[in-house]
Amino acid sequence: MVKIPGRFITIEGGEGAGKSTHIELIVQWLNAQGIDHLRTREPGGTPLAEEVRKLLLERHDEPLQPMTELLLIFAARAQHLQTLIEPALSRGQWVLCERFTDSTYVYQGCGRGLPQENVATLEALVQGSRRPDYTFLLDVPVEVGLRRAAKRGQLDRFESEPAVFFHKIRNAYLERARREPGRFLVIDANRAAREIARDIETTLARIAGEGRNV
Ligand code: Z5A
Fold first, then answer.
1. Ligand 1 centroid distance, CA of 15 (Å)
2. 103 lines ligand 1 (CB under 6 A)
């Protein structure tokens, strides 16, 4: 394995943007480069956090309140960060995480209407100063993403939201990317997977190059 300092890279985007597809391709690229890495996801990533994920995605007779949803997400994140992500970064691994706190700002903040300050308070409490080094934002028109995701069949609690919810999500992601252009790498994901993968790999090669100079 090549020794390059660990990087914390997150993949974000709405429904059917291609996050799972491309994280798989990134893993193949990292393997080919010999870069030691860990692939994970949120909510989830550890056995306990995956239990919380089930609670969050399943439909319940008793509606899950937005604040409960927010606290469950950060409870899972605390477990995930402390037991998996931080140790991997300390070992010098690259961590590739499908969704992270940008999802919380966008879904619980803009989607559910909770104050952004509540998210920021929990972010500081749970993460301290830990933030992703880079975030790929896979951007697709809402209708395209929903069409892709619909092919999978039964909808979970989030997927059952109306289209207007997903328009808010897309706009909120793009706004966050505009505010942090150094961290966000916005990828037009309304193209053939091959073309998207090529763009992502070019960026990863640059990031790996930065690592070699550290
Ligand atoms: N959530 C939250 O509210 N707050 C938080 O803080 C966090 C999460 C962390 C679970 O996420 C839910 O948790 C999420 C928000 C909430 N719910 N929503 N919505 P998830 O990541 O597990 O669920 P998801 O976003 O719904 O994943 P997804 O629909 O599977 O999307 P994806 O991973 O981006 O897409 P994919 O599986 O790679 O691709 C979908 C299909 O499109 C598949 O058939 C592919 O073969 C196809 N595809 C992919 N790329 C292409 C291209 N380029 N062309 C054509 N077809 C393609």
1. 4
2. yes
Ligand 1 centroid–CA 98 distance in Å is: 9
Does residue 148 line the site of ligand 1, with CB under 6 A?
yes
Q: Tell whether ligand 1 has an atom less than 6 A from the beta carbon of residue 51.
A: no
Token representation of residue 106: 């966008």
For the chain, 214 residues long, give each residue's pLDDT as a single digit of tens.
556 678 999 999 999 999 999 999 999 999 999 999 999 999 999 999 999 999 999 999 999 999 999 999 999 999 999 999 999 999 999 999 999 999 999 999 999 999 999 999 999 999 999 999 999 999 999 999 999 988 877 788 888 899 999 999 999 999 999 999 999 999 999 999 999 999 999 999 999 988 664 4
Q: How big is the chain, counted in residues?
A: 214
Interior CA angle at 177 toward 172 and 183, to 5°? Answer: 140
Instruction: Tell me the whole-structure pTM to 2 decimals.
Output: 0.96
- Which ligand 1 atom minimizes the distance to the CA of 191? 53
Both structure tokens of 66: 């937005």
**In ligand 1, which atom is closest to the CA atom of 192?**
53
